[in-house]
Amino acid sequence: MRSFTPPVTVIDHAAGGPGNEPLRTALAQATYDGTPGHPVIIGSAHFAALVETLDGDRGAGLYLRAHGALRVECGDLWSGADVDRPSARND
What we know:
Layout lengths: L6 H8 L12 E6 L2 E8 L4 H5 L9 H6 L3 E4 L18
Parallel strand pairs: 1-3
Antiparallel strand pairs: 1-2
């Protein structure tokens, strides 16, 4: 049986724990069996630098890797499928 991790637990962990490092400096990415995926948490302190690195549909992956984003394993919660439109869903 797979365990369930409430979203607030993931956010607290990414932010350094309740009452610790502010969420505005957080940088975290969900992984699925070690493969980077969505969602990501990018605190507002990263916005200006991140915008400078974005190119086409590549997204924030390079920035997340270069800045040591916390990797949060979520394979027990979801397949990690990138579903951008309703027709791609397998509901």
